[in-house]
Amino acid sequence: MKYDVFGVGNALVDIQARVSDHWVAETGFDKGIMTLVDDQQQQSVLNRLSGISLNRCAGGSAANTIMGVADFGGKAAYAGKVASDEVGEFFLHDMRKMGVSIEVAAAGFGQTGTCAVLITEDAQRTMLTNLGVSATLTEEDINEDEIKRATYVYVEGYLLTNPGTRAAAYKAMNAAKLHGCKVAFTASDPFLCSMCRDEIWELVRGPVDLFFCNEEEAKSLTGKSDPIECAAELHRHSENVAMTLGANGSILMSEGTAIPIEGVGVNAIDTTGAGDMYAGALLYGITNGMSLKQAGHLASHAAARIVGQLGARLQNRFTQNEIMALMK
To answer: Taking residues 317-328, what's their average pLDDT?
Structure first.
């Protein structure tokens, strides 16, 4: 089977809960950012969540994007590592029920990675991530025969922080170029752009055909303050750039031209997965007959719909009529 998009990332189960600012402060972790935590720290937080209404879904940046592609009816596959535990079984079932192909064998040890997503009244999310066995993904888990069936290979930047997952990311990108597939890469987080700036620039100048980032990540990479100048600088080195601007929409760059995409007004409830869904909708669009501008409009509406609900999965999926209307 041909795939529109093949994703590679850290396989995590997101555990989402709405809590107060005071609740977050009591954890001792900084609000509004992602923090890596160990087994004991994560279990302590999960224990405190006992009795609070929780929402679980297969997560991780690339997994969210791949599920976005599948949500629109696209054909997708994913490479990520889970353990042979209940949480891992949940992850695989959640992805596969949407038609996503996952062929990576589960680890015979350890526990599946989790991300406790603490959502406060201002729609900010504080993410406490325990990578678990997701960090054991290696290049041996990347099936080149699966890669060559894809139009795009999508890689999350978080993989650069670990030697094994980094090797997996590079194998996927190298296999994509070998077999004539396009490579999309997401910067993932401003802290990552600071930590891996030189390496990300090498990727932008090298195998990456479509670079995803948000405004803060672009500023970190380029050292510029104006969003248009940031996007233009990135476009000098990458064929296509998609830079999100939060409520202000996004900027797409292609063939030397800036394509502004308006934001969609929404009452923000939870920003979890908005950027991931934007990428998923854009990738679905450009692999299913849309122009980049049309795909950008679909992505903007999809991200807004995610922000207006709890969780990273579309609770109100787009109809074909809605998709066609956005193509006009």
So the answer is: 82
Place of tokens 């923000």: 268
| CB burial string 38-70: b at 16+ within 10 A, e below | eeebbeebbeebeeeeebebbbbbbbbbbbbbb
Residue 157: count other Cβ atoms within 10 Å of its Cβ.
25
- Using CA atoms of 161, 195, 183, 308 in order, give the dihedral in degrees to the nearest 10: 90
Q: Which helix (H) or strand (E) holds 126?
A: strand 125-130
**Domain ranges for the chain:** 3-10+59-110+133-326
This prediction has a pTM of 0.93
Residue 161 has, within 13 A of its CA and on its CB side, a CA count of 17
What is the Cα–Cα distance from 19 to 296, expressed in whole angstroms? 33
Q: What confidence score (pLDDT) does residue 33 get?
A: 83
What does DSSP say about strands 55-59 and 12-18: parallel, antiparallel, or unpaired? antiparallel
The pLDDT, as a whole number, for residue 146 is 96
Half-sphere exposure of 134 (CA within 13 A, CB side): 32
Residue pLDDT, tens place only, 274-321? 899 999 999 999 999 999 999 999 999 999 998 888 767 787 788 888
- The CATH architecture annotation of domain 3-10+59-110+133-326 reads 3-Layer(aba) Sandwich (3.40)
Instruction: Give the integer Cα–Cα distance in Å for 321 and 308.
Output: 21
